[in-house]
Amino acid sequence: MTDPLESSRYSLEHAHRRIRELESEVAAFAALNPYAERIDKDVKTGEQLLKVKLVKPMPRSWSGIAVDAVGALRSALDQAGFAIALAAGTKGKNGHFPFGGNLADTLLRKVKGRSKDIPQEIFDVMIASQPYRGGNDLLWGLNKLSNTHKHEIIVPLVTSSGGFQMTKAVITGPLTIGARWDGSKNELEVARISPGGKIEGKFTYSFFVAIGDVELVGGQPAIGFLDATANEVERILVAIEAEAKRIGIFS
Fold first, then answer.
1. Does residue 1 fall inside a structural domain?
2. By residue range, what is the domain housing residue 33?
3. Tell me, what's the pLDDT at 163?
4. Distant-in-sequence contacts of 164-167, Cβ < 8 A, 24+ apart
5. pTM
6. Is there a domain that residue 137 lies in?
7. Which residue among 63, 88, 112, 214 is least enclosed by CB atoms within 10 Å?
8. Is 53 helix (H, G, I), strand (E, B) or coil?
9. Nearest Cα to 180, choosing from 49, 57, 63?
10. Is residue 251 a part of any domain in this protein?
11. Residue 245 contacts by C-beta under 8 Å, 6 or more apart in sequence?
12. Which pLDDT value is given to residue 177?
């Protein structure tokens, strides 16, 4: 028996493969310690700045891998909508998954938009996933990333989720910790020390890639975001299939 969601499942599996490929390549790159530490001074405020600069360029292939994963996840949802529309007796032309800028905009996709061939019961399941701004940030981010220039989809960061570790380090004076990435210089500002203070010693950092400048999801670790989004897509596919069987358009 043919699986109506076979194309969607293949796209989801492909996304998982690409995410693991990106994860492996990032780990191998990080093992090279591709960054150098330095201390600068802010001439305007007199503060000392602890910075980490990426000294090896991020492989260009990473953006392509991330774009491929994002595209596969988005396709998995659109292919599910197409399969549902076909099973409902239409040609599937207007069977797109209803991404929207807000809830009202998303609902219009059923009335007069690209989702009008999807049966109402299945459309309701899709809407329940909140695929709009202010709803499900994972789905909103997926939709935005699918329309983002591939060279801007991910950026390198040198830090760790808990800031950084200090070994035999000395810090005097008020300290402000805040990760600010400067893409033009390929460097991260890790901390600021007030005038008259001092920072010296050994620090340990972690390297990862983050989502680029995309509203609501920018700066999130790319691997974590992609994994979470893939899990959300899988959950939606399961819900769509269950409802399609309940209403009798899937056997």
1. no
2. 6-246
3. 41
4. 164/190, 164/203, 164/204, 164/205, 165/203, 165/204, 166/201, 166/202, 166/203, 166/204, 167/201, 167/202, 167/203, 167/204
5. 0.84
6. yes
7. 112
8. strand
9. 49
10. no
11. 251
12. 61
